[in-house]
Amino acid sequence: MPTHRPEPRRRSDVDFSASVVGLASAKVHDGSVTLIQAIGLRKVFRKPDKAPGIRGSLRHLVQRRYSEHVAVDSIDLSIAEGEAVAYVGPNGAGKSTTVKMLSGILVPTAGQVHVDGLVPHRARVENARRVGVVFGQRTQLWWDLPVRESLELLRDMHGIDRSRYQERLERFDSVLGLGDLLPVTARKLSLGQRMRADLAAALLHEPRVVYLDEPTIGLDISVKDRVRSFVRQLVSEGTTVMLTTHDLSDIEEICQRIIIIDEGRLVYDGNLQAVKDTHVRERTMSFELEDSLLGADQIAARLPGARVHLESNGRELAVTFDRMTLGARQVLSAVLAEVEIVDMHIDEPAIESVVRKVYAGQLQAEHGGATNSEPMR
Amino acid sequence: MRRTIRLYRRLLGAQVRATLEYEADFWIMSLSAVLVQGIGVVFLWAIFESIPEINGWRFWEVVLIYAFVVISEGLSTLFTQGAWTLAVTVNFGQLDALLMRPFPPLLQVLSSEVGFNGLGNLVLGIGLVAAAVRHVDFTWSPGRIALGVILVIAAAGVKIGLNLLTNCAAFWLRSPYSMFAFSMHTFGELARFPITIYGLGVRIAITAVLPYAFMSYFPAAAVLSDGTARLLGLLTPLVAIYCLWLGATAFRLGLSRYESSGH
């Protein structure tokens, strides 16, 4: 027997290389543990190349041509326990594909994933015990069964004991108003009701990690608020949340960290406030003036570096300034020194403008350093 | 193991309730099964009206083979009809939800539908056996009866494994229709008759390639006759294990190709 045979690849549920990776990077700056780790994550889909029309489809039967579509292109992620991370990007950026790989639904074409020490697509059953997923577009409930039945089936699968189950139901009832939905068959639920029931189904077993893929899509304001406050509560209890959304209020209300991807590549990964500080430094103060003003030159002179704009009616004044160099108080006193004001308001930087910059391809140029590098935290 | 069986029963039970949401379906499916399988018997009877025996098999013996198919198919329909939903489940990306539950995805797929037509099959199948045993020239010992029961269950295992295997084509074909599996199933119908009436090619195909003959002809021969067919028939439980393993392997391979929907 040769003594230096290469070790065969383990096929056990728990991939032990996971713990090695885990140890190497387990400690993040604040001493918390990395729960989700992806290295060089990649997913390539093969798509048939067909010319349009029936003719194209028929030709494809004999001339089989395929092209590769890279949905996720070498993404590195590292998310610590208890973090709330927003995962954003335009349609088709690869958000859902990433979430599906992290949750074990899709097998990555290349790269590694470890979630709570497991390789999700290899240890599916064990992974499902620790993870909860909500897909906004699709229900996970049993279509022809009352919500209560679905929850009880899940209770049995997860092996949750009766009293704990009751506690969970009461909790869901108080936050999500689940009680009224229990006797209703899933296919008869409205979108908002379905989402509430789906949240309950995904969180019944108190998962450590929760992936929310567009959880507020198509919901009205009141349901959105309910869902958001529920997720905020989860985060405050230490659940790790990864949120995919197009709704910027979701992000601002729930997350501290934002990861932006575009065309399958990581474009930005960092603290939400830092993003705002770096990329949304401009702030605008608007004033309604007591008397109409002929020119704003004197105000502008008092505020070097700021842009002062006076509406043609002479009664509306807007001052745009870099909030790192000027404070709102300075602006206010400069304006008050020249005119009387009736009303004023400040436009706070919204994450929307950052994402817009990214979508327009600006951020990458400005912030090339953050691309695919260590997470900036 | 006990947990697995209990959960499987729970899931099937839930499907019974879900199916009973559509009560008319229940009656239509059960009755149509009796009709469809019954017509087959009438067809057999019509043939045997003009020929007294086929390759040494008499009418009531063929009815027993037939009963084997009807019962084993009934069992597979009743308990594992979910295999036939695989094409739609894969095409629509509905496997996602199953993959996020802590129970083996394969068992969730198999238990995702209850075929009430299986009940009709069982009723008819048992009726056929009861009618046939009186006419078959044979001594029935407890050993034979036990063998029969074991072989029927094994035959159901063969059918379940083959159903799963052929339906797993959905992972590769990706269409929402189980056409491939259905055409293989139709091909398997050949095994309702003594397979000695077919040419060598067909016999090899339904014995070795997709061994549908092990859900009917061989196990029936093991109970009724002697010779090679009987020996092969005694192997039915092994063939069942092999078919189930094939099906499970195809499912595992398929799952790694699964692409969900809407990336």
Automatic annotation (TrEMBL), chain A:
Protein's cellular compartments: Cell membrane
Transmembrane stretches, start-end: none
Main location: membrane
SMART domains: AAA (SM00382)
Membrane topology label: Peripheral membrane protein
All copies of domain ABC transporter, residue ranges: 56-288
Keywords: Antibiotic resistance, ATP-binding, Nucleotide-binding, Transport
GO molecular function, one term: ATP binding
Protein name: ATP-binding cassette domain-containing protein
Organism of provenance: Plantactinospora alkalitolerans
Automatic annotation (TrEMBL), chain B:
Pfam family, one: ABC2_membrane_6
Protein keywords: Membrane, Transmembrane, Transmembrane helix
InterPro entries: ABC-2_transporter-like
Keyword Transmembrane among UniProt keywords: yes
Spans through the membrane: 26-48, 63-93, 114-133, 145-173, 193-214, 234-255
Classification via PANTHER family: INTEGRAL MEMBRANE TRANSPORT PROTEIN, SLR0610 PROTEIN-RELATED
Protein name as annotated: ABC-2 family transporter protein
